[in-house]
Design brief:
The structure is a single chain. 86% of the residues lie in helices and 0% in strands. It has 3 helices and no strands. It has helices spanning 2-37, 41-47, 55-85. Helix 1 (2-37) packs antiparallel against helix 3. It is mainly α. The longest helix is centred in the first third of the chain and has 36 residues, at 2-37.
């Protein structure tokens, strides 16, 4: 029973982590699009120390890396029982 509960908690935190990463990337994407659409780009660029990468690239990269991590979790979970059996 305790093992099932810890597995559930781990899956729950993985889902929460994925949602948080996609949420932060979405905020970055929409905020950048708003600044460009509202023609406030010059005031934003005047305050930046470094110019970040393209927002769409950051959003797509975050989604891809999250899916890659989830895929690795699934692969490792399926390989571990085969290793234990010998």
């Amino acid at each position: 029973m305790r093992r099932n509960k810890s597995i559930f908690i781990a899956k729950f935190f993985n889902i929460i982590n994925f949602i948080a990463i996609v949420y932060n990337a979405s905020i970055y994407l929409f905020a950048t699009n708003y600044v460009v659409a509202a023609v406030m780009l010059y005031s934003l660029l005047g305050r930046l120390d470094a110019i970040p990468i393209a927002p769409v690239l950051a959003f797509d990269g975050n989604c891809f890396l999250c899916l890659l991590i989830i895929g690795l979790f699934i692969i490792v979970r399926n390989i571990q029982p085969a290793i234990r059996l010998g």
